[in-house]
Amino acid sequence: MTTNLLHWLKKNEPLGTGVLLGGLFLFFSWVLAASEGYIGDADSLTHYKFSRYSWLYPEFLLHHWGKPVFTLLSSWQAWQAGGLPGCRPGGWGIQIVCYSLFCFSLLLYTLFS
Question: What is the span of the domain harbouring residue 36?
Fold first, then answer.
C-alpha cells in the first residue's frame, strides 16, 4: 500500500504532496488538540521527574528509560514552568516540531526519490 501511495504521489506530485501533507497536518492538529497531556499515571510522573531534575543530576539525560532526547528537549520547560501543568505548552511545542520534521522528511522523500 505504501509503495502504491508513493508511486501515485510521484506521478501527481503537486496535488498528491499537497493532499498528503494537508491531511497529515489536519490529523496531527486533531491529535494535538485531543491530547490530554498528563494523564496521571506513574509513567507521566516519572518522565516529568527525569526532565525536571536532569539539571541537578545530568546522568538523567543519558538514562535509557527516561527517553534521553525527550528529557533533553523538555528539561528546560520542566525546570522553568513551575510544575507539571506548565509543561503542557512545551509538550505541544515538541510535538509540533516532531510533526513538522516528519512532514518535511516525507516531502523530501517524495520529491527526490
Answer: 2-112
